Amino acid sequence: MVRAVIRLYGIVQGVGMRYFIWREARKLGLRGYVRNLEDGSVEIVAEGENDLIETLVYLARNEGPGFVSDLKITYESDRGDLKGFKIVH
After folding, report:
1. Number of domains present in the structure of the chain
2. For residues 46-55, b (16+ Cβ closer than 10 Å) or e, as one string?
3. Residue 36 is among the residues annotated as catalytic for this protein
4. Is 81 exposed, middle or buried (CB count within 10 Å of its CB: 0-12, 13-18, 19+)?
5. How far apart, in whole angstroms, are the C-alpha atoms of residue 16 and residue 53?
6. Which of 36, 50, 62, 79 is catalytic?
7. CA geometry: angle at 38 spanning 31 and 59, to 5°?
8. Over its length of 89 residues, how does the chain's per-residue pLDDT go in tens digits?
9. Rounded Cα gap, residues 75 and 54, in angstroms
10. What CA dihedral angle connects 4, 40, 55 and 32, to 10 degrees?
11. Would you say 83 and 11 are in contact if contact means Cβ atoms under 8 Å apart?
């Protein structure tokens, strides 16, 4: 189990990206949240199996709404403090 902090850059706000990530992360059984940041990026914090997180990253970059021009991922130890997956406003 791992925690990933993922930042999506590009045309990622106002296109339904948060709802897409929320839906796909729940299907994958990941825990965490997704939110818009003031700089126009989208932040995803997800905990779960590494291969499932990689699937979420693939979906965000290749199948999500909008256009992801850049993506940054930081991996951390799974803290186990997240329950479910939610959209943070």
Report:
1. 1
2. bbbeeebbeb
3. yes
4. exposed
5. 19
6. 36
7. 40
8. 999 999 999 999 999 999 999 999 999 999 999 999 999 999 999 999 999 999 999 999 999 999 999 999 999 998 889 999 999 98
9. 11
10. 50
11. no
The CATH number assigned to the domain holding 70 equals 3.30.70.100
Catalytic residue among 18, 23, 31, 62: 18
Domain assignment present for residue 84? The answer is: no
Active site residue 31: no
For residue 36, give the amino acid letter.
N
Which of 58, 40, 50 minimizes the C-alpha distance to 1?
A: 50
Domain span including residue 25 = 2-79
3-state DSSP assignment of residue 14: coil
In single-letter form, the type of residue at position 25 comes to A
Strands (DSSP E) contained in 1-89 are 2-11, 31-36, 42-48, 67-77, 85-88
